[in-house]
Amino acid sequence: xxxxxxxxxxxxxxxxxxxxxxxxxxxxxxxxxxxxxxxxxxxxxxxxxxxxxxxxxxxxxxxxxxxxxxxxxxxxxxxxxxxxxxxxxxxxxxxxxxxxxxxxxxxxxxxxxxxxxxxxxxxxxxxxxxxxxxxxxxxxxxxxxxxxxxxxxxxxxxxxxxxxxxxxxxxxxxxxxxxxxxxxxxxxxxxxxxxxxxxxxxxxxxxxxxxxxxxxxxxxxxxxxxxxxxxxxxxxxxxxxxxxxxxxxxxxxxxxxxxxxxxxxxxxxxxxxxxxxxxxxxxxxxxxxxxxxxxxxxxxxxxxxxxxxxxxxxxxxxxxxxxxxxxxxxxxxxxxxxxxxxxxxxxxxxxxxxxxxxxxxxxxxxxxxxxxxxxxxxxxxxxxxxxxxxxxxxxxxxxxxxxxxxxxxxxxxxxxxxxxxxxxxxxxxxxxxxxxxxxxxxxxxxxxxxxxxxxxxxxxxxxxxxxxxxxxxxxxxxxxxxxxxxxxxxxxxxxxxxxxxxxxxxxxxxxxxxxxxxxxxxxxxxxxxxxxxxxxxxxxxxxxxxxxxxxxxxxxxxxxxxxxxxxxxxxxxxxxxxxxxxxxxxxxxxxxxxxxxxxxxxxxxxxxxxxxxxxxxxxxxxxxxxxxxxxxxxxxxxxxxxxxxxxxxxxxxxxxxxxxxxxxxxxxxxxxxxxxxxxxxxxxxxxxxxxxxxxxxxxxxxxxxxxxxxxxxxxxxxxxxxxxxxxxxxxxxxxxxxxxxxxxxxxxxxxxxxxxxxxxxxxxxxxxxxxxxxxxxxxxxxxxxxxxxxxxxxxxxxxxxxxxxxxxxxxxxxxxxxxxxxxxxxxxxxxxxxxxxxxxxxxxxxxxxxxxxxxxxxxxxxxxxxxxxxxxxxxxxxxxxxxxxxxxxxxxxxxxxxxxxxxxxxxxxxxxxxxxxxxxxxxxxxxxxxxxxxxxxxxxxxxxxxxxxxxxxxxxxxxxxxxxxxxxxxxxxxxxxxxxxxxxxxxxxxxxxxxxxxxxxxxxxxxxxxxxxxxxxxxxxxxxxxxxxxxxxxxxxxxxxxxxxxxxxxxxxxxxxxxxxxxxxxxxxxxxxxxxxxxxxxxxxxxxxxxxxxxxxxxxxxxxxxxxxxxxxxxxxxxxxxxxxxxxxxxxxxxxxxxxxxxxxxxxxxxxxxxxxxxxxxxxxxxxxxxxxxxxxxxxxxxxxxxxxxxxxxxxxxxxxxxxxxxxxxxxxxxxxxxxxxxxxxxxxxxxxxxxxxxxxxxxxxxxxxxxxxxxxxxxxxxxxxxxxxxxxxxxxxxxxxxxxxxxxxxxxxxxxxxxxxxxxxxxxxxxxxxxxxxxxxxxxxxxxxxxxxxxxxxxxxxxxxxxxxxxxxxxxxxxxxxxxxxxxxxxxxxxxxxxxxxxxxxxxxxxxxxxxxxxxxxxxxxxxxxxxxxxxxxxxxxxxxxxxxxxxxxxxxxxxxxxxxxxxxxxxxxxxxxxxxxxxxxxxxxxxxxxxxxxxxxxxxxxxxxxxxxxxxxxxxxxxxxxxxxxxxxxxxxxxxxxxxxxxxxxxxxxxxxxxxxxxxxxxxxxxxxxxxxxxxxxxxxxxxxxxxxxxxxxxxxxxxxxxxxxxxxxxxxxxxxxxxxxxxxxxxxxxxxxxxxxxxxxxxxxxxxxxxxxxxxxxxxxxxxxxxxxxxxxxxxxxxxxxxxxxxxxxxxxxxxxxxxxxxxxxxxxxxxxxxxxxxxxxxxxxxxxxxxxxxxxxxxxxxxxxxxxxxxxxxxxxxxxxxxxxxxxxxxxxxxxxxxxxxxxxxxxxxxxxxxxxxxxxxxxxxxxxxxxxxxxxxxxxxxxxxxxxxxxxxxxxxxxxxxxxxxxxxxxxxxxxxxxx
Length: 1849
Description:
six-stranded parallel β-sheet, 43 strands, alpha/beta, single chain
């Protein structure tokens, strides 16, 4: 009995459930008669069920399922009755006057269940396109219709041919094996991604139930079927009630309740073979309704976790139902082939022979399918695809049947099954079986007492505890169900009994919760119906027991003790020397382990040793050293075989761990060595990872209590015990462990390294195995086993010791049978044979393996028969016993018949568990794909010379798999192996769970996720439900279906935060983001809009508990206020914990190179923990999209760069040598690049090594970089003792730097970067001049000074300077002869909001290039002519291009005819070729015209490639150049690129838009300085010519451009500036202000939202037009400049400092003074208000007036020499200014006071000058011997003190 679970993908895959349903009239589906049920051909219709039907409407539980309903729900994600709903809705809408299109839209909305399943528009692969063409060509050749069906055999031939052709085109070579070809076809045929439509939960009873159902009388059969249905319904009801949820919030952080499930239940009666197989498919829809009515997706994780518990519940209910209805009994039936698996409970009395007959039919079909798959592989050079495999399985079914399997009625099926049963049992036998079965009464159903329930709970928990160290509710539930079933509990009290037993088992009396309680209590709105927090996954609480936790604690505490016996290092050294003298020298790691374990005094010490690392050698040396010191060594191991091997290898007594533990409770007969343990005893426990924690603790307690010491040896990544384990990891983490990492077993160092990578679960391990042909593929498990056997056969025939491995005993039995059949050859039998426990037979010559320890069967005096011993059969005796020769000792013993029949199997193959500890020449591992990393590691680490793995890639051909993801999205062998490597089954201890649950990193991340989501929810509360509803309705109006997108909750929270901070703004922001560009192609429109909201940078809420988190809004509910306050405090506290931990260690790999900057390490640690960054290479991880997060990440990255220098791409020097973009695009390339850099840094010739490695042959199709790395294993030269690079030029630096500073540079983490920069720059030349220049740039004398570089940053700075100096001597553009053609244009992509528009990296050609390619002066007119011809050609290319569509999308209704526009297509020489042919242009002319450039190889390439071009004109109107905007989706070069400087084009003298708007300007239009070309077009268009947008070719104006702009302003002199609203744009506006005011212009600012006129014109053209219309009222630009100056003093002003007001007034005074006089009063009033003190107005006036006169008397500076003439001039200016002000307005008292203050200051200055005159005269009469010290002068400074006066700016 079992339940299985598979995902259902959207589309038409549901048809496998409906296609064999009997065809009935639609009116009859709901009321099928009893006769119809038996006579209708095909399966009975499915039935709807689930509590969600109540809220869904139109369907009731039990209604028949139609194909149309399945298509709507599982195919499209709509209401099952969508067709009916839409017809009715359409009719209503049309009747109400709607158009047909409107009615259709309303109808679609009426049938939606949330968002429809997404449609993925992935482009088909070249293979798929070519395959379609080949199919159509075939049909044309045979005269068939274009889309006529093609026979499967022909389709396969075409698919193989096209696959091979496209593989060759892709990789430039033929596929090396069938794996590569099949993988290529699989990757190429993967269809567009399909969303999950639901889950198929399938319930099948045990075989005896289906057998009895098939042949029993009808009334009995009906009762069995009803019992099955009742059990299915009960199990699904439990799933619906207990583990069904959906997820909400950011990343699904909240798990919330739902209104039930939508389920369609289909009961099928037979298997593919046509045999009786009663089973039910329950299709569970992924569409679920939350309690608020929202339709969302089902949370599938709890469903997967609960599957075993649901299966056991079904089993229990089925047995109880069948027993109650029929009175039959169930009993456990022993099946030796199941090994240690639980016995199956079958119906008593049902014939095993009949069940075997019907089971064998499937085996026949599988065998035939395997034959067909083998034939297919041989014919096509590849295994079949999963879909082809299904077709082969169908063919196999037909081949093994007498007649074709058409749909049959139940009546026909029962007749056929009865006939088959009679064939097996005969009439009497069948009647007898039925009579016996139905007459056998089951024991009377029981009702357990309270004590019995308590006992059952305790027994169930003990069983769970023996299997694992920690458990969840579902584990306990499954075991309770099994025990309740075995006890025969009455059906009517089953639920009550089970729940009571589970409650008892999980009560604090028996189970200890390992999951921390809620840190803070959440409000009721954030709790599920059962009261649990939505932030805690339901039923995820982990439990353990006091016994397990005490055992773990005991072991770890014993490992901390250091009071054990020690031996001297001299004794250890002698033992090591002796080992070396005997030919076994230990490596350094082995030596260190032996020395540590002998001398540490640890009572318990752990040694971790991967397979093949030489642990046996180390333990032998340890044993010898301990014994030489007079101590005793005893060996223990979990298994008898391992104990025997341990004892033999270290030369001491060894036994099983279980024996010691058993004798602790049974002292009688205990071995003598137990009593002899004392303080000089060392107990070595080998394979400690396979021991259960309680056994290990008992042994350690016993040994240490007697004074002894324990050494645990194991590998925490090998297969572990079936029981509580994982404590080795605790010891290693909390105490430490000695480790061996150098592997000795393998003949290939590369294979040794690959094995270690497998051990760690790293996918790059596969590179070695793929590169060496160690990964083989087959269609299915049968094919895999066949290949494993054939390879093993070839190895053994060649004399190699080979081993076949498989995961299950059934597969092992198949391999054994193949090997035995091959040994026997053509003969059917080779003498007498005996039956074995596995079901096979053995005769003389067969290899066998024993499966049970039996000390009564001695082999030698010290050895006895153990589980895992291998023998060869020497004789078969008549009584069934065997004489067998032991492989290890050569001794022959007799194995009794009873032992042989129960505990002996053939021994040619073994399981992975059985192979642990074995070493052979080669292994061949059969995989199914469901194995763990640990199984694969064990299997692939047994062979010295070769380890192979065989992977099935086609599936088993089952029809039910037609819609499984692996069929629709076929996996390659590499995909399967990567999944295996990711499946970590290493045991985890309870202690580990507790430690990780309380890890500050995990706690901080959980707190941050909860905080971010809670802030969003609080924002909804803050604005109220009505506002939330308005936002939701408007969102749906703006983009229908938006509120049903997966990320809607996140977007809604974001909008609510905006609304809470700035009421009334959220909808406008949303409209702006929606209109920015289309959303129809977005998979999740809500996620896109959420990003757009952030990208506007307008959301500026105050920071929360972390810099990138928003502060919580104010909410009216005090419960929520307290909750948010507590939550913010929790985040702060968790962050403090992470901060403190980070400061305590510098061992994090991502912190390398950060020196002693503890603040930075702590900030990075908090960032990584809060956001779950697990990238070990990058300190801050992947680039964040959210603006707040991105900004903080950029700050962190900048701080890291200050320490490390700019990050470099590892291995970039070797890209050209590799010459394979597959390698450099491989995710492993950065790791390989670092290795190559390291090889070069230590003297290795990387180019030669790469050439040798690549010469070995083509790299595999997958993991090519890892494969290349494996070829280089061992190539790196050994590091020097210091591990530092010392290039020959190092002395140049050392000689010119102080010794301490030189040491800092050469030991800096940035030293390798500097070495690479120098070597790259000089390219073999003398680096001395370069280094001296770089040192000068670094200003070495000021290193460590307040205004100099810190010493630790010098290496990074030098690397940057060297790189800049090196770049200045080379052309910076890419070389077309060395660079790949850029990717296709992406003009549809959104422009980056964060990228500056003024990037221009033009660099003058260096002298050496100009000498190599001399430039003659091309005439000016010729340059203009070539520029015009280029423009004409560019214009032709623009027509119809994607760039044109982009341009129109950005400029809307603008008149583009006035502009010179074009498009430079991608490609290196398009324009060059055109002008050479049509304009007879020479190379020199093209370069002089700025249209082409020289490459390093002396060829020309176009300056502009894949760019939208805007023509640039000089003041005479001549077209002189272009500015090119790159495609938005590209990162090739700067965003904007200008024509290089030419004789005609000078960047600083050209303004885009000026010539184009000349007519408007002459008519009185005002110029507007904008930043970009598109902004200029937008301004001109929006104003209708009243304004003219002009753009410099940089951020700010040059003086020449300013003159042009002022000249264009006309008589009124109005110039407007529309700066970008970022730091660079505003700084440019300030520079423009002073340039313009110096020319007598009073510039105004045009307030464009966001500062980007082009964006506003695209999104809200009416808004920009309105802004342009109000330009005459535009505020002065001076106000912007004043605001920016005041902002610098805001902090001090907020603190109320008096000096701050003076400093702020003095800062803005020059700006006010530069404005027209009539503006002064308003500016002064505004500044006074900003200073927050009305009394400050006279202060401001004083500073403004002082700034307006030639000399400022308010700024006292003894270093300023002022003469009387200057004072006189200032006094005259002040008088003139006072007169002008009085004429303007004479009534301002503050202004009058300010004038008086300045006049008094000038009078004081006159008096001071007179005093100074007299003092100088006196000093001249009596000169002093020395000058007075001037504190403003530096020592040795003889010049005058610097003059400081009142600045105007």
